[in-house]
Design a protein that fits this description.
Helices cover 9% and strands 42% of the residues. It has a five-stranded antiparallel beta sheet. It has a four-stranded antiparallel beta sheet with strand order 3-10-5-8, with no helix packed on it. The two termini are 27 Å apart. With 129 residues, the chain is mainly β. It has a single domain, classed as Jelly Rolls, CATH 2.60.120. The chain is built from one helix and eleven strands. A hairpin with a 4-residue loop joins β6 and β7. Bound molecules: dTDP-4-keto-6-deoxyglucose.
Length: 129
C-alpha cells in the first residue's frame, strides 16, 4: 500500500490512521532497529494478528509465505507499507544497519497468537482449509 506524503518545502510527513489508511484499528505500534549484520528475524506466523510494516529508514527484505506461494518484498520507502495478514509466515532478511522497521498491529502483544514452528503453521493451515 502506498501512503500519500504530505509536507511542504521543509520536508515530508506521512500520517497513518487506523481504519482509514490502515485497514484495522491500531492497538499497538512497535519498531525494529539495530538489527545486527547478517541476522534474520521473524520465522513465525500469527493466528489472528494483522499488521502493516513500513521501513521508515534503511531497508530490509520481507518474505511472506501463505502456504501456497512465497514472495520476497524489499521494504525501502517510508511511503510504502506492507500489509501482513493473519496466518502468513514471515521472515525478515538483509537489514541495513540503519534500518528502522515500524509495525502497526491490530492487537496487543500476545505470545499465544504466535506460531513459531513452520510445520505447525502448515498443519494449522491444512486444518482450516
Ligand atoms: C512480527 C515481526 C514483523 C514484546 O514483548 N512485545 C511486542 O509487542 C513484540 C513485537 C515483541 N515482544 C518481545 C517478544 C520477544 O521476547 O520482544 C522479543 C522479540 O520479539 P520477536 O522475536 O517476536 O521479534 P521479531 O523481530 O522476530 O518479530 C517481530 C514481531 O514479534 C512479529 O509480530 O510480525 O516483528
Amino acid at each position: 500500500m502506498d501512503f500519500l506524503p504530505l509536507g511542504d518545502r521543509r520536508g515530508s510527513l506521512v500520517a497513518l490512521e487506523g481504519q482509514r489508511t490502515v485497514p484495522f484499528a491500531i492497538q499497538r505500534v512497535y519498531y525494529l532497529f539495530g538489527t545486527k549484520a547478517g541476522v534474520s528475524r521473524g520465522y513465525h506466523a500469527h493466528r489472528r494478528l494483522q499488521q502493516v510494516a513500513v521501513c521508515v529508514a534503511g531497508r530490509c527484505r520481507m518474505v511472506l509465505d501463505d502456504g501456497v506461494s512465497r514472495e520476497s518484498v524489499w521494504l525501502d520507502s517510508p511511503t510504502r507499507g506492507l500489509m501482513i495478514r493473519s496466518m502468513v509466515w514471515r521472515e525478515m532478511h538483509d537489514f541495513t544497519p540503519d534500518c528502522v522497521l515500524l509495525v502497526l498491529a491490530s492487537a496487543h502483544y500476545d505470545e499465544a497468537d504466535y506460531i513459531r514452528d513452520y510445520q505447525q503453521f502448515r498443519a494449522k493451515l491444512a486444518s482450516i482449509e
